[in-house]
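Structure in, sequence out. Go:
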C-alpha cells in the first residue's frame, strides 16, 4: 500500500466519526417531471423521489425555451468552445449574453465566467490587487468563493458580524481613511435564508469611500420586476459597483457573471487569471443562459409560483410546530444542530418516504448548526408541499432525537 493511503483513509474515518461524511445521491432528472427524479440506490434499485433541496428554483432547467435554444445551438455551433476567451473561445454568443446581462442590471458591461465560484474568486481577488493596499470588509456568512477571492488577493481583510451594520461601521471607522476599501456581501444568504442590508451598506460605503461588491447568485431571476435580484427589487442597482450572479440556480443552466462599469469589467477581463486561463463555456450553455435571462425579464409566472409555494411551506411548518429559520427569502432552513441527527433524518426521508433532502453540515455551515435546507420551487405542487409538511410533522412528533436537536 502506498505509504500515504493510510492518511487519506484516516481522514475519511474522521469524517464518518463526526457524522458529516457526505454521500452522493445519484439522481436521474427526467425532463418534464421535475421536481421528481429517479434515484439510483446503492442496492442497484431505482425509485422516484421528490427533490427538496434543488437550486433550480424556477424550473428553468426544464423550460422549453431554454432547452430549444440549447438544442438548436449544438446543431449550429457544435459542442465545445475550442479554447479560452482570449484564444479562439469567444463567440458572438458571449457578446449577446454579456449585453443581455448588462441590460439586466443597468450597467455598462458584463463578463461571463465558467461558474459563480470562479466569478467571485477571480473578480474579488483581481479588484483588490488592482486597487493596491486595499481593505476588504466581508460579512462573516459570505460564501466560500468570496472568502477564497479575499484570501487570494492577500489584502487586509476585516470580517464583520453577519448583517451587523454597527459592527461594519465600527470597522470602517477604525480603518485608515486613505486606503482603498471594498465591502463584499450577499443579497440572499443561502444557508440562513435571510437578506443582506443592501441600502445600509451602500450608505456606509458612501460615507467611508468604499466600493460595493454584491453577490446576487440566489436572487437573480427571482427578485425584481425583471429578475435583476434584490438590488433591483429595492431600486438600488445604481448604488452597487459590482453585481455578481450565476446561471446555475434560478436560470437553470451553469456559469457565472459580473456586471459593472466598462473600465472595471475590462480590468477584470484583462487581469484575472481565473478568467484568462479557463476554457470558455460551451456554445449551447451560453445560448441557454441567454434564453433564460431574457425569458425571465418578462415572465412573472415562475416567480409567483415559487413565492406561493414558499409561503405555503413556511405557513405549514409554523402550524406543525417545526422550528425553522425565519428569513425573508425563498430559502427555508430547518436547523438541526447535530450532524448525526441531521443525517439520520434525511436518510429516513429518502429511504422511507422518497423525499430527498441533502443534510448540510460543516464546512458549509459552522459545526453545531447542521440543517436541512428546503426550497419550494416553482415546479412543486401544493400536494408536494403538503406531503413534505405532514411527513416532517410525523417525524418530529415520533422522533425524540429530532425534537431534542431543534429545541
Amino acid at each position: 500500500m502506498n505509504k500515504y493511503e493510510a492518511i487519506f483513509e484516516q481522514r475519511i474515518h474522521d469524517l464518518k466519526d463526526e457524522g458529516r461524511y457526505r454521500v452522493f445521491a445519484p439522481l436521474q432528472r427526467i425532463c418534464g417531471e421535475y421536481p421528481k427524479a429517479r434515484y439510483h440506490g446503492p442496492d442497484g434499485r431505482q425509485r422516484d423521489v421528490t427533490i427538496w433541496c434543488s437550486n433550480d428554483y424556477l424550473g428553468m432547467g426544464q423550460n422549453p425555451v431554454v432547452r430549444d435554444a440549447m438544442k438548436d445551438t449544438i446543431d449550429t455551433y457544435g459542442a465545445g468552445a475550442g479554447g479560452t476567451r482570449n484564444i479562439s473561445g469567444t463567440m458572438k454568443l458571449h457578446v449577446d449574453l454579456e449585453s443581455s446581462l448588462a441590460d439586466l442590471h443597468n450597467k455598462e458591461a458584463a463578463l461571463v465566467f465558467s461558474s459563480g465560484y470562479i466569478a467571485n474568486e477571480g473578480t474579488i481577488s483581481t479588484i483588490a490587487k488592482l486597487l493596491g493596499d486595499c481593505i476588504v470588509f466581508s460579512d462573516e456568512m459570505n460564501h466560500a468563493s468570496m472568502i477564497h477571492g479575499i484570501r487570494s488577493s492577500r489584502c487586509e481583510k476585516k470580517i464583520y458580524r453577519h448583517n451587523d451594520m454597527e459592527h461594519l461601521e465600527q470597522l470602517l471607522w477604525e480603518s485608515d481613511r486613505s486606503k482603498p476599501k471594498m465591502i463584499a456581501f450577499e443579497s440572499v444568504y443561502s444557508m440562513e435564508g435571510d437578506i443582506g442590508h443592501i441600502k445600509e451598506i451602500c450608505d456606509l460605503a458612501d460615507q467611508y469611500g468604499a466600493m460595493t461588491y454584491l453577490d446576487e447568485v440566489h436572487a437573480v431571476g427571482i427578485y425584481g420586476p425583471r429578475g435583476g435580484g434584490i438590488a433591483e427589487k429595492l431600486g438600488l442597482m445604481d448604488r452597487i459597483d459590482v453585481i455578481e450572479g450565476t446561471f446555475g440556480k434560478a436560470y437553470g443552466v451553469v456559469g457565472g457573471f459580473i456586471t459593472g462599469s466598462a473600465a472595471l469589467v475590462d480590468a477584470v477581463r484583462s487581469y484575472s487569471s481565473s478568467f484568462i486561463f479557463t476554457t470558455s463555456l460551451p456554445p449551447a450553455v451560453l445560448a441557454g443562459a441567454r434564453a433564460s435571462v431574457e425569458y425571465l425579464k418578462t415572465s412573472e409566472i415562475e416567480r409567483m409560483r415559487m413565492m406561493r409555494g414558499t409561503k405555503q411551506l413556511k405557513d405549514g411548518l409554523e402550524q406543525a410546530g417545526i422550528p425553522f429559520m425565519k428569513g425573508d427569502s425563498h430559502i427555508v432552513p430547518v436547523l438541526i444542530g447535530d450532524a448525526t441527527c441531521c443525517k439520520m433524518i434525511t436518510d429516513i426521508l429518502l429511504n422511507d418516504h422518497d423525499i430527498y433532502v441533502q443534510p448540510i453540515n460543516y464546512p458549509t455551515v459552522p459545526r453545531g448548526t447542521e440543517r436541512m435546507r428546503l426550497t419550494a420551487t416553482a415546479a412543486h405542487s401544493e400536494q408536494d408541499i403538503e406531503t413534505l409538511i405532514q411527513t416532517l410533522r410525523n417525524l418530529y412528533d415520533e422522533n425524540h432525537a429530532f425534537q431534542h436537536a431543534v429545541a
